[in-house]
């Protein structure tokens, strides 16, 4: 039995940890104002405080802590992308996850059980080979497996031999995994606030005071804050918040839906994802099977669920695992994703000198929570963008230096 | 036996006994019994072990909503024992037990609760090593997690889906729903009334009400042909524009209703005190359902905890069922006399007011209730019926936009809906008295009818007082020793919620996420109200400020099978499919289409492909190209239209000529290619790649919605088939067929098209050259394609004509360096990167993508698609997708590679650095096994670089 | 399933339609600076409010315009492209 459980058992009172301090009064000014109290914003706050000694930091959250896409995503963590720039960045993200529970002294339950993406067409197999070759070159564990390999990794799959959706092979990414999304945010929040970062829940940004090429102050529903540097990390609200500062981002918002079954004894040990069926499944450590897929077909800022998407995801899940017919669904939900034209994020500088962007995370942001926070903190502390982030600059849309990750993003996020 | 004589037991048929087993032991019940009621009738009250502490659990609500009564069937996990009918030979077992239900080794967890405070797993299991969680702790947790087990060999079951349309959908056939449905139908509306129970009536079917009320409504209902009743049907969600899934067994009705009346009733809430989870402690409604529906006596000796009339009614029902009621405890302060008090006292029941149950104790191992603590002393009993409060069934109303509020005076949750097409009636609207419920149903019907345009003659009855006197007094008696459960599904106690707030999880959504309260099978039905009250008290706010978490669909559990239904995968076959099969083709799916991969013996695929290539290069081959996109553009602006869409010039294209066409998107990236045959001044026939045609067609229509040119676009992809006759002897084959087309070289030159008939089949023929050989592509109506195929095959026989498949086609085109869109191009490929400057008009003022490729050319280009050739007999060949490196950095990739029998070596197309594009440059390629090899850059057209063969 | 009222075919389930996104201004490609051109290509109308969008009724291949609220998802009106547009 771990020592801490013994401590709990022997102490008379509940050992209060106080992870999230109650929201304090707003001060008139902070060195850094982080807009968005989700995983990315909190991660940045933690890195600023712990590694750069910047503790005059306010994290502003419109609702409750980490209640946006941090709480709604299906927690896929992976680095099997297409572009070398993307792979290098996400690979660092996976490596940070491998140490994250120790870093935060909070169990984020990083469960690196591997991700198996399935190909039902030769075109998909070809794209898998591209990702595998690039992934291997960049030092990730990404390989193409044949039908036998798929059967060994996931023996319960319906291979549909001879059928129109025969599984021809897969992309096996041993580095892939999941983590407990809330725990990541709470762990960062606890660490950051222990070092003096202030977390302000129910604090909504309503505008900016822009003077020349700088933001002088942030206007909120609780008052005005003068600021040194400002970071936007507001997920589905990025377009709106940036626009308040006069910055127009190439982003469109779409709902992304997911659903979860009742808890079952473990039977699915890897993440399984099908490109053709637009469906992926993963079983959480609670035993629930989380099922997700593609985005909604039209722009919308709403977290309503639809029956159509639920039926579609059920079709995919039952096709892959026919014995799931009798398994019961518990809940469905949605998040608002900020999609970029090339399915890569926008990180780094903005047209304003002290406004920094951590935006355009679409459907793929959770896995980057540690690395985006670390690198954006470095950017803010140094006042310049590190090499690893440079390819993700907003200007890439003016120079056609797109980082096209659509093929590595559409089915599993 | 706990079975009561008739008239108790409305749902069971005593003439039909059924035998089944539970935990390996035989039990008897009757048809109509659910698993839980048949077991209860035989004295088996324990149904499950709880999620975390493995405490014995039994019937709580009889609604099937909570984890307490989930059991395992061989092929069905997490089955609601309270609602699932028994059948002969059914094998039922408990789930989430280590050993057996009776002897669960994990029951020891109940003693270690203090070591496992709320959220303990976030603070432990971290070390000692970086992968300790993955390798050591998680496997232990995973084994303990979950409830039921899936049967991976479960037999396939049939599900179906259908649609249902109505003027008014009424959800819930209790008194309010019945009165609403009758009122709406009597006014002439098409009405559907659904209820999850097997009978109508709701509380009227099991509560202590005058049977004449239900009988009267039943007969009125039966006389209404425009009122359709769906019993055993769950309305499991509300979606935009009144789209509601109704689940009846294995069928999903997707219902569209113009108006919806939600009469979903209320959910009885448990009381919170130490050991409030023991089997034998149940809600009053559960006891009444056992008695009236199933004829099961819920206990021998009962205490009733009642804070409303329903509790008093339940006490009287228990007496009628032969249960000795020891005492009725009413937590409301003394004063005022309710309608049933005198009757109860007259039957010798002691009533204690202003008191509550403070704790309970169980028999050995907490297997059943033994006694309850009231006012500091213990009262022995084996049944505690709890009727202390209700929460309106908020799930459907909230999905439909309703807002939950809280009335502190009566400790009641309230729901308000915005004005619109969804209406509330009965207990969900806060009017739970029978007369008021019936009146509120009629009021809701009147509102719906007036929105539908019906004239409502009768003035709807006025709203009654919501609640006459307090009836919702939910006692929360926190116990220092715990086991005062708020959420039975998740084994959460009062202190767990309090402790979460101490750690800063003060918002209700954070409390939920940190403690998992409300996340189990019952989704907060029995915990949301108590949770809000506990969190409010712990954080110094009001219950209204705390609120409840978002109610998401589905309302109750639903199987993936019923959602998936009878799913068919979309498949397309060309009109020549049967011909390919007859010729022993190996078929493969390409997108939605099935296409011949090669013909002949699968054991010698390589040889078959080689022979097919040989036939094309030296004789003649026949390829089914019917999957190609085929579009026809008509109208006076047809030429202008193509000029704007494609990069080459088409407006000036002579009639009878065929031109390559290349399509870009606005970004200047290549998205499709094909050929355009000008059939007349105002008519083009254009091909598109198989995978892109749907998008190309839609884009054409979209652009023209903006341009408003005088053109029509027809998608003939399915209507027409295409046969490519190719090879040096192609002309001889066609000339052997009866035709009005002159196939001679001079009359029908390369890149021209002709209409006519071949073998009596009307055709459009284009001379194009994907294979690099003399080629005629014959397109004809799909219904006539088999005839044309047979004729060509017959005419070709003397010339050794061979049908060939996709694999040979790919090699043939690769030998010519022809690109495949999507394989040799990606989302950012420009014509320049392909060396396709020749295909881009420099003269046209506009075409889609023109502005962008000019800008991109100025920004500079970094890569170029070139041919690579590997030396004959090379040991390691780089496969498709292998990286092209420059100074160790990945610069490009191989996009196509194959062995060319004509050249007797491997050839490839690859992106290389723009500085390496010259013929003779050498590039480094990283093979799949990591070996670096060098390959020389060669021209695109590996075979017959002067293109002499296709123009003969 | 949400309903969308096609000006030609009446109210139909929204899965019969294909969204082509908000109507975009079409700058003259030959009179637009590079920076403005790339903005035209990549920027997207995404304000929290009502937008005018292109929709296609797939079975009939009819393209029309709809005013829709991106927050509430309410479709305010649908109309043929030849009709005057209040917004955009």
Rg measurement of chain A, Å = 21 Å
SSE topology string of chain A: HEHEHHHEHEHEHEEEEHEEEEHEEEHH
How many helical elements of chain A? Answer: 12
Low-confidence stretches of chain A are none
CATH top level class name of chain C: Alpha Beta
- End-to-end separation of chain C in angstroms reads 28 Å
Question: DSSP strand (E) fraction of chain A?
Answer: 15-25%
The helicity of chain C comes to 10-25%
CATH class placement of the largest domain in chain A: Alpha Beta
The major beta sheet of chain A can be summarized as: 8 strands, mixed
Query: What share of the residues of chain A lie within helices?
Result: 25-40%
* Mean residue pLDDT of chain C: 93
Name the pair of protein chains with the most residues at their interface, and give those residue counts: A-B, 96 and 105 residues
- Which oligomerization state do the chains in this entry correspond to? heterotrimer
CATH topology of chain C: the name is: Folate-binding fold
> Which shape of chain C, going by the Cα principal axes?
elongated
For this structure, the CATH topology of the largest domain in chain A is FAD/NAD(P)-binding domain
Number of DSSP strand runs of chain C: 6
Overall structural class of chain A, as computed from helix and strand content, comes to alpha/beta
Polypeptide structure, described:
Chain A: One of its GO terms (cellular component) is cytoplasm. Chain A: Residues 31-378 form the FAD dependent oxidoreductase domain. Chain A: It holds the Pfam family DAO. The complex is a heterotrimer of chains A (413), B (952) and C (88). Chain A has 413 residues and is an alpha/beta fold. Chain A has two domains: 27-73 and 182-250 and 342-408, 3-Layer(bba) Sandwich (FAD/NAD(P)-binding domain), CATH 3.50.50.60; 112-176 and 253-339, D-Amino Acid Oxidase, subunit A, domain 2 (D-Amino Acid Oxidase, Chain A, domain 2, 2-Layer Sandwich), CATH 3.30.9. Chain A contains twelve helices and 16 strands. With 952 residues, chain B is of the alpha+beta class. In chain B, a hairpin with a 5-residue loop joins strand 34 (658-664) and strand 35 (670-680). In chain B, helix 4 runs parallel beside helix 5, helix 6 runs parallel beside helix 7 and helix 11 packs across helix 13 (528-539). Chain B is elongated. Chain C is mainly beta and 88 residues long. Chain C has one helix and six strands, in the order βββαβββ. A four-stranded antiparallel beta sheet of chain C has the order 3-4-5-6, with no helix packed on it. In chain C, strand 4 (50-57) and strand 5 (62-69) form a beta hairpin. The longest helix of chain C has 9 residues, at 34-42. Chains in contact: A-B, A-C, B-C. At the A-B interface, helix 1, helix 6, helix 8, helix 10 and strand 14 of A face strand 6, helix 2, helix 3, helix 11 and helix 12 of B.
């Amino acid at each position: 039995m771990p020592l801490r459980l013994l401590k709990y058992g022997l102490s008379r009172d509940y050992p209060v940890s106080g992870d999230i301090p109650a929201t304090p009064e707003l001060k008139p000014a902070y060195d850094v104002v982080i807009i968005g109290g989700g995983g990315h914003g909190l991660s940045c706050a933690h890195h600023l405080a712990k590694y750069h000694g910047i503790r005059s930091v306010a994290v502003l959250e419109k609702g409750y802590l980490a209640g946006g896409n941090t709480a709604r995503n299906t927690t896929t963590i992976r680095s099997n992308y297409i572009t070398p720039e993307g792979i290098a960045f996400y690979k660092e993200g996976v490596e940070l996850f491998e140490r994250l529970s120790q870093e935060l002294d909070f169990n984020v339950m990083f469960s690196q059980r591997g991700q198996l993406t399935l190909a039902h067409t030769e075109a998909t197999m070809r794209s898998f080979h591209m990702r595998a070759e690039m992934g291997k070159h960049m030092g990730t564990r990404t390989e193409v497996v044949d039908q036998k390999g798929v059967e060994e990794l996931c023996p319960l799959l319906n291979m549909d031999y001879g059928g129109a959706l025969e599984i021809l092979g897969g992309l096996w990414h041993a580095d892939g995994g999941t983590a407990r999304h809330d725990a990541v945010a709470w762990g960062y929040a606890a660490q950051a606030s222990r070092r003096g970062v202030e977390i302000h829940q129910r604090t909504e940004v309503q505008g900016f005071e822009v003077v020349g090429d700088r933001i002088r102050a942030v206007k909120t529903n609780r008052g005005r804050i003068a600021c040194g540097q400002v970071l936007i990390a507001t997920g589905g609200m990025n377009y709106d918040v940036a626009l308040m500062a006069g910055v127009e981002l190439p982003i469109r918002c779409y709902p992304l839906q997911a659903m979860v079954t009742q808890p079952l004894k473990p039977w699915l040990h890897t993440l399984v994802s099908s490109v053709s069926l637009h469906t992926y499944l993963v079983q959480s450590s609670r035993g629930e099977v989380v099922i997700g897929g593609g985005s909604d077909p039209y722009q919308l800022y709403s977290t309503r669920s639809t029956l159509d998407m639920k039926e579609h995801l059920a079709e995919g899940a039952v096709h892959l695992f026919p014995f799931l017919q009798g398994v019961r669904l518990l809940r469905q939900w949605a998040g608002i994703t900020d999609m970029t034209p090339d399915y890569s994020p926008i990180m780094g500088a903005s047209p304003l000198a002290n406004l920094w962007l951590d935006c355009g995370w679409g459907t793929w942001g959770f896995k980057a929570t540690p690395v985006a926070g670390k690198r954006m903190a470095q950017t803010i502390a140094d006042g310049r963008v590190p090499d690893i982030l440079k390819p993700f600059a907003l200007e890439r849309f003016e120079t056609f230096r797109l980082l096209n990750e659509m093929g590595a993003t559409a089915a599993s996020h | 036996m706990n079975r009561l004589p008739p008239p108790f037991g409305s749902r069971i048929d005593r003439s039909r006994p059924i035998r089944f087993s539970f935990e390996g032991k035989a039990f008897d019940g009757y048809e109509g019994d659910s698993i839980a009621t048949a077991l209860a009738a035989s004295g088996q009250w324990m149904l499950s072990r709880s999620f975390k502490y493995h405490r014995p659990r039994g019937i709580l609500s009889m609604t099937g909503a909570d984890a307490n009564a989930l059991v395992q069937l061989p092929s069905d996990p997490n089955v609601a024992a309270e609602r699932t009918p028994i059948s002969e030979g059914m094998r039922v077992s408990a789930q989430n037990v280590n050993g057996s239900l009776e002897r669960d080794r994990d029951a020891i967890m109940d003693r270690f609760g203090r070591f496992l405070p709320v959220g303990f797993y976030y603070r432990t299991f971290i070390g000692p090593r970086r992968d300790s969680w993955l390798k050591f702790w998680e496997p232990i947790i995973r084994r303990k997690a979950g409830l039921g087990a899936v049967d991976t060999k479960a037999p396939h079951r049939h599900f179906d889906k259908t649609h249902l349309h109505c003027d008014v959908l009424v959800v819930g056939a209790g008194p309010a729903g019945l009165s609403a449905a009758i009122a709406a139908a009597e006014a002439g509306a098409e009405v559907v009334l659904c209820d999850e129970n097997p009978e109508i009536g709701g509380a009227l079917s099991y509560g202590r009400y005058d049977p004449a009320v239900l009988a009267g409504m039943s007969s009125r209902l039966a006389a209404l042909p425009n009122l359709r009743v769906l019993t055993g049907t769950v309305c499991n969600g509300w979606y935009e524009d009144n789209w509601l899934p109704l689940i009846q067994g294995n069928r999903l009705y997707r219902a569209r209703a113009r108006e919806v009346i939600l009469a979903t009733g209320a959910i009885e809430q448990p009381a919170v005190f130490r050991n409030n989870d023991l089997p034998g402690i149940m809600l009053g409604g559960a006891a009444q359902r056992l008695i009236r529906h199933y004829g099961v006596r819920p206990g021998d000796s009962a205490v009733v905890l009642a804070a409303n009339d329903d509790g008093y009614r339940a006490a009287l029902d228990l007496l009628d069922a032969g249960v000795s009621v020891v005492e009725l405890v009413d937590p409301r302060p003394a004063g005022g006399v309710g309608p049933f008090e005198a009757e109860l006292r007259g039957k010798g029941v002691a009533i204690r007011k202003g008191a509550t149950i403070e704790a309970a104790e169980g028999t050995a191992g907490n297997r059943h209730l033994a006694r309850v603590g009231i006012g500091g002393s213990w009262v022995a009993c084996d049944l505690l019926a709890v009727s202390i409060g209700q929460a309106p069934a908020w799930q459907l109303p909230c999905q439909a936009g309703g807002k939950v509020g809280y009335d502190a005076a009566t400790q009641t949750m309230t729901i308000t809906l915005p004005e619109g097409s969804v209406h509330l009636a009965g207990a969900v609207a806060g009017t739970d008295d029978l007369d008021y419920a019936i009146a509120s149903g009629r009021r809701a019907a009147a509102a719906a009818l007036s929105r539908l345009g019906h004239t409502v003659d009768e003035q709807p009855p006025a709203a009654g007082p919501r609640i006459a006197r307090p009836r919702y007094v939910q006692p929360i008696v926190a116990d220092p020793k715990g086991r005062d459960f708020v959420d039975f599904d998740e084994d959460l106690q009062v202190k767990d919620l309090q402790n979460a707030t101490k750690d800063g999880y003060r918002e209700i959504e954070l409390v939920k996420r940190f403690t998992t309260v409300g996340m189990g099978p019952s989704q907060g039905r029995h915990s949301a109200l108590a949770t809000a009250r506990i969190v409010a008290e712990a954080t110094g706010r009001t219950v209204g400020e705390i609120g409840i978490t978002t109610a998401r669909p589905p309302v109750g559990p639903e199987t993936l099978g019923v959602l998936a239904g009878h799913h068919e995968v979309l498949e397309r076959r060309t009109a020549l499919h049967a011909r390919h099969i007859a010729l022993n083709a190996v078929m493969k799916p390409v997108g939605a289409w099935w296409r011949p991969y090669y013909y002949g013996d699968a054991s010698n695929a390589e040889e078959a492909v080689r022979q097919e290539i040989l036939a094309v290069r030296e004789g003649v081959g026949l390829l089914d190209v019917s999957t190609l996109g085929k579009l026809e553009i008509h109208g006076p602006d047809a030429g202008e239209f193509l000029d704007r869409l494609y990069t080459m010039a088409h407006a000036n294209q002579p009639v009878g000529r065929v031109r390559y066409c290349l399509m870009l998107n606005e970004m200047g990236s290549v998205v499709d290619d094909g050929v355009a045959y000008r059939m007349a001044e105002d008519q083009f026939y254009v091909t598109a790649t198989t995978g892109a045609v749907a998008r190309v067609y839609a884009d054409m229509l979209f652009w023209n919605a903006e341009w408003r040119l005088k053109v029509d676009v027809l998608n003939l992809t399915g209507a027409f088939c295409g046969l490519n006759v190719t090879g040096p002897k192609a002309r001889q084959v066609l000339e052997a067929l009866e035709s009005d087309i002159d196939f001679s070289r001079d009359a029908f030159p390369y890149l021209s098209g002709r209409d006519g008939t071949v073998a009596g089949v009307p055709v459009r023929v284009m001379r194009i050259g994907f294979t690099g050989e003399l080629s005629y592509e014959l397109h004809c109506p799909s219904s006539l394609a088999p005839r044309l195929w047979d004729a060509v095959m017959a005419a070709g026989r003397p010339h050794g004509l061979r049908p060939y498949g996709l694999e040979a086609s790919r090699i043939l085109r690769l030998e010519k360096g022809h690109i495949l869109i999507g394989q040799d191009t990606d989302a950012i490929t420009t014509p320049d990167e392909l060396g396709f400057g020749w295909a881009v008009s420099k003269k046209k003022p506009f075409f889609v993508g023109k502005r962008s490729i000019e800008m991109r050319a100025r920004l500079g280009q970094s890569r170029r698609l070139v041919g690579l050739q590997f030396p004959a007999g090379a040991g390691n060949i780089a496969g498709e997708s292998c990286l092209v490196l420059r100074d160790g950095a990945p610069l490009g990739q191989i996009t196509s590679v194959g062995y060319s029998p004509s050249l007797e070596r491997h050839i490839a197309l690859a992106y290389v650095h723009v500085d390496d594009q010259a013929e003779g440059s050498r590039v480094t390629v990283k093979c799949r096994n990591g070996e670096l090899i060098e390959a020389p850059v060669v021209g695109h057209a590996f075979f017959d670089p002067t293109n002499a063969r296709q123009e003969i | 399933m949400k309903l969308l009222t096609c000006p030609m075919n009446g109210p139909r389930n929204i899965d019969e339609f294909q969204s082509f996104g908000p109507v975009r201004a079409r700058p003259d490609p030959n009179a637009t600076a590079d920076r403005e051109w790339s903005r035209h290509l990549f920027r997207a109308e995404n304000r929290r409010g009502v937008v005018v969008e292109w929709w296609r009724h797939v079975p009939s291949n009819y393209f029309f315009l709809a005013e829709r609220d991106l927050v509430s998802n309410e479709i305010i009106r649908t109309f043929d492209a030849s009709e005057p547009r209040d917004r955009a």
